[in-house]
Amino acid sequence: MSAHIRNFCIIAHIDHGKSTLADRLLEHTGTVTLRAMKSQLLDDLALERERGITIKARAVTMRFNRGGKDYELNLIDTPGHVDFHYEVSRSLACCEGVLLLVDAFQGVEAQTVANAYAAMEHNLKIIPVINKIDLMHARPDEVAEEMMNSLGTDPDECVRVSAKTGVGVDELLDAIIEHIPPPTGDPDAPLQAMVFDSNYDDFRGAITYIRVMNGTVRKGQKIRFLRAGSNHDVIELGRFAPARESCEELKAGQVGYLICNIKSLGDVHIGDTVGLASAQGTTPLPGYSRPKRMVYCGLFPSDGQDFTELRDALERLAINDPSFEFEPETSEALGFGFRCGFLGLLHMEIVQQRLENESDVDLVQTAPNVTYEIINKRGETVSIRKPQDVPDPGDIEEFRQPIVRCSVIVPNDYIGAIMKLCQERRGIQKSQEYLGAQRAMLTYDIPLAEVVYDLHDKIKSCTKGYGTLDYEMVGYEPADLVRMDIMVNGNRVDALSVVCHRADADRRGRAVAKKLKAEIERHMFEVAVQAAIGSRVIARETVPAMRKNVTAKCYGGDITRKRKLLQKQKEGKKRMKAIGNVEISQKAFMAVLSDS
Ligand code: GDP
Ligand code: MG
């Protein structure tokens, strides 16, 4: 029945050629003619292209004849970055096989390993592919050996290709047909289809990507998202080949899309199961989880007037990206803004960049923080999304932080530098393996907060760019953490509170106090800037009282000049915030936040 279908993903480290290979497969199967070929068809968001990463999975159906038989190959694209592990795992759940693509010069990298392990967990057939064999410095034999050592793939099974020139791509198509098993599943059983992606079309609403595992879904049926519990009419269904092609039904084993008049992507949950509304008791497919926002930050318009504009921009973003969330937040220091949640640091950067590109609100961002857990004295577990919400030390029984398992792959020369770096970041070494004669993989458990702070940049800079990092969540563990506050004349400045390790609090507190002092203008009285943990002051700076009258230097007669000066002062005041009896310009907070 479905013997002619092959469902697969390409998994690779960033820049190893996934998009280029996808283009070549589309071309060699005749799905897209060379002339009509728009380079890198699968990465259709301008931003993805700009950053060279694929953010959301898409699927393309290729029809293709080999040895007198017609085949249907479904290529499911996967996001390539650490923040999107869950999305990758849902795409893999829709496949029977993967092409594990490795650059013939770069060799095995951190995301190669992470993705290969994920494919093994799903029991998928792995076809090892070595790409870029056209490069002058290609070292395909060594790379095949690295793959064998780190992933257990057979060097004889490696297909060698150049996605750039097309060499080896026909052989790869043969390998796909020969080695990836066709899907199983009963087209007459009750409908169960996995939602592995969605995107938003301004005219049609949500487009839901599905893989039918069992049963058949037809146009006009009423379907049900089994986990969300909502019912919808199937207005259109079909496939992308690569243009949208509607059809009457999708059967067990097939991959395609549904359009159901859904107005927000928030209503379509990746990993949910589509069943028929009429069929009672259909079980949802396993493996579903909700998006976990691990990193939060506050976003405030630098001019309070732009609040509604910022809210509209965030709403537009959230329609297209259900993993992003935001809620209003008020800060004494920064005014009205939003607390925003992201899957990880890269996700945060992507959202920020979209905001900048798509709206012209000038933004102030507070330092990103991870989600913490606190067990209070009453034994309740509280999830903390912003430092201000951490209770006073007396009410904390246990303070817990998220730990991630980091895999770093580096040339052997840099092993020492990476070990030092990971230890400084409170990492605990888990293993060290050699991938070949030249490279090693180090595994550490490190607090996510340390990773978020700057680990990736630091790894890149201490390995001249050769080190690669991947990480996955391990869980929450207790740690000696404190909320450090910044006080101005005894009043807490909410936007400047941070959570940090107790041993780092002194150093960080001193640095922030010093910086803020430099930004505060003199008042008629002395202003104390302090860093404190609970009621214990750990650093203090003093802004001395003003001595001179500002207008004094405008000797006597020049009244216009005096007026101008007063006018200027008044304007400056508009952007002033009062912290107790001390006036601080918004610019001062921005300066302190810009690199804390
Ligand atoms: P992705 O991040 O895995 O999607 O990688 P891309 O497909 O965007 O490729 C990354 C870079 O490698 C681009 O500059 C491609 O032109 C280049 N590239 C991809 N495949 C080959 C190849 O076979 N040979 C050579 N020389 N360059 C390639
Ligand atoms: Mg790509």
TrEMBL record:
It comes from Novipirellula galeiformis. Coiled coil: none annotated. It is a peripheral membrane protein. It is an enzyme of class 3 (hydrolase). Required for accurate and efficient protein synthesis under certain stress conditions. May act as a fidelity factor of the translation reaction, by catalyzing a one-codon backward translocation of tRNAs on improperly translocated ribosomes. Back-translocation proceeds from a post-translocation (POST) complex to a pre-translocation (PRE) complex, thus giving elongation factor G a second chance to translocate the tRNAs correctly. Binds to ribosomes in a GTP-dependent manner. The keyword Ion transport does not apply. Gene3D superfamilies: 3.30.70.240, Elongation factor 4, C-terminal domain (3.30.70.2570), Elongation Factor G (Translational Gtpase), domain 3 (3.30.70.870), P-loop containing nucleotide triphosphate hydrolases (3.40.50.300), Translation factors (2.40.30.10). InterPro entries: EF-4, EFG_III/V, EFG_V-like, EFTu-like_2, LepA_C_sf, LepA_CTD, LepA_IV, P-loop_NTPase. Its EC number is 3.6.5.n1. It catalyses: GTP + H2O = GDP + phosphate + H(+). GO terms for molecular function: GTP binding; GTPase activity; ribosome binding; translation elongation factor activity. This is Elongation factor 4. Belongs to the TRAFAC class translation factor GTPase superfamily. Classic translation factor GTPase family. LepA subfamily. GO terms for biological process: positive regulation of translation. PANTHER family: TRANSLATION FACTOR GUF1 HOMOLOG, CHLOROPLASTIC (PTHR43512:SF4), TRANSLATION FACTOR GUF1-RELATED (PTHR43512). NCBIfam families: lepA, small_GTP. It is found in: Cell membrane. It comes from the Bacteria. Keywords: Cell membrane, Elongation factor, GTP-binding, Hydrolase, Membrane, Nucleotide-binding, Protein biosynthesis. SMART domains: EFG_C (SM00838). The keyword Nucleotide-binding applies. Residues 3-184 form the Tr-type G domain. GO terms for cellular component: plasma membrane. GTP binds at D15, H16, G17, K18, S19, T20, N131, K132, I133, D134.
